Structures are given as structure tokens and as C-alpha cells.
């Protein structure tokens, strides 16, 4: 699919499109924030549920939206704050948006999801369990309540407020039967 959300680490259940927004004049463009772009989109009468993440790189932005709203957004988005912009549908994922990772290795007692979340977020196991109750733990874009779940290699773990990572699996076991687990955190 053009503008493939799954390749960039997002689940792509409904048909989604990637929209690219750039200023008409780089010289006079303001430094725009996530809030500025979101405000301009919502100001067009689009519901927040139709728009996904907004990714900003220097003075350009990309965002995912439901396919049914993509054409309207691409043709109607003309201004963000006081900056004139042009919006267009992407036919392929720009290299600048390819995910960048930093490898994170954590030492855990078991492969249970609550242990991984605690180590990944730098919390105690009790604090990590509270994140499950608050619906802040997602695996592959879905909320998870099963604290004993075991991740498979390639699963995407998101902990709201702490980050997102791809699970790469067990690297090795220590002499005391603890596990060194590898994750690729989205940078």
C-alpha cells in the first residue's frame, strides 16, 4: 500500500493514507508544533479519530489519516497557524520517516509482559502493573490486560508515557537464570 503505516511501525487495520504537509515558503515558515498541525486539521472539521500520528521533521510534517478523509485534507489544508502550506498524498514512504531505533537491553526475571514493561519503563513491577489497569500498555496497537503474556519476536510494545519498541527476544540467560532481553526503542 502507498504510504504504508505498518512499515513505519503502526498497525494498519483500516485503510490509511499518509499526507505530507510542507510550507509554501521555507524562508518565511514558522517553527510549527504538533499542536499547530492538529489544530489546523481539526479546524477543517475533521474528527480526531480520523487522524493518526503527526510526525514533524524540521519544517515539514506527515500524518496518517483514514483514506476517506485523505483527499479532503490534502486539498483543504492551506494554512497552519500563520504559515501557508501545501498538502499532498504520499505515494510511498519518504526515507526521512523510516523509523530510527536505539537498542535497549534489559535484565528481567522472566519473559512475562509485566516484567518487560517494568524494565523497559524503569519502574518497579508494582508500578508496571498499575499501567495495565490504566490501559497504558499496548502490544501491536492493542490494549493488553494480561500481565503474563509473552511477546514474540517482532511484536511492538508501547507503554504510554514511556516509549515504544520492537521486541527482538532473549539474547542470553545469566548464571542466575535471569534473562537479557533486547528491544529496539523508537528514537
Describe this structure in words.
The protein has 187 residues and is of the alpha+beta class. It has 2 domains: 6-97, Alpha-Beta Plaits (2-Layer Sandwich); 101-186, RNA-binding S4 domain (Structural Genomics Hypothetical 15.5 Kd Protein In mrcA-pckA Intergenic Region, Chain A). Helices cover 20% and strands 36% of the residues. It has 4 helices and 11 strands, in the order E-H-E-E-H-E-E-E-H-H-E-E-E-E-E. It has helices spanning 34-42, 67-76, 113-121, 125-133, and strands at residues 16-23, 51-57, 60-66, 79-80, 83-89, 101-108, 137-139, 142-143, 156-159, 163-173, 179-186. The strands form 2 sheets. The chain has a 6-stranded antiparallel beta sheet, covered by helices on one side. Strand 4 and strand 5 (83-89) form a beta hairpin. Helix 3 packs across helix 4. The longest helix is centred in the middle third of the chain and has 10 residues, at 67-76. The chain starts with 15 loop residues before the first strand and ends with a strand. The mean pLDDT is 90.
What layout of secondary structure does this protein have?
Layout: E1 16-23, H1 34-42, E2 51-57, E3 60-66, H2 67-76, E4 79-80, E5 83-89, E6 101-108, H3 113-121, H4 125-133, E7 137-139, E8 142-143, E9 156-159, E10 163-173, E11 179-186
Antiparallel strand pairs: 1-3, 1-5, 2-3, 4-5, 6-11, 7-8, 7-9, 9-10, 10-11
Helix pairs in contact: 3-4
Amino acid at each position: 500500500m502507498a504510504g504504508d503505516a505498518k512499515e513505519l511501525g503502526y498497525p494498519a487495520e483500516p485503510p490509511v493514507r499518509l499526507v505530507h504537509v510542507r510550507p509554501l515558503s521555507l524562508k518565511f515558515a514558522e517553527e510549527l508544533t504538533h499542536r499547530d498541525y492538529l489544530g489546523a486539521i481539526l479546524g477543517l472539521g475533521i474528527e480526531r479519530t480520523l487522524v493518526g500520528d503527526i510526525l514533524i521533521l524540521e519544517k515539514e510534517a506527515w500524518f496518517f489519516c483514514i483514506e476517506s478523509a485523505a483527499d479532503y485534507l490534502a486539498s483543504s489544508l492551506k494554512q497552519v497557524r500563520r504559515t501557508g502550506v501545501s498538502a499532498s498524498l504520499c505515494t510511498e514512504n519518504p526515507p526521512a520517516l523510516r523509523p530510527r531505533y536505539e537498542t535497549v537491553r534489559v535484565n528481567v526475571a522472566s519473559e512475562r509482559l509485566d516484567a518487560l514493561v517494568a524494565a523497559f519503563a524503569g519502574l518497579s513491577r508494582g508500578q508496571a502493573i498499575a499501567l495495565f489497569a490504566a490501559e497504558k500498555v499496548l502490544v501491536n496497537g492493542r490494549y493488553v490486560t494480561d500481565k503474563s503474556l509473552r511477546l514474540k519476536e517482532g511484536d511492538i510494545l508501547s507503554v504510554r508515557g514511556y516509549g515504544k519498541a520492537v521486541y527482538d527476544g532473549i539474547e542470553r540467560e545469566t548464571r542466575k537464570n535471569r534473562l537479557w532481553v533486547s528491544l529496539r526503542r523508537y528514537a
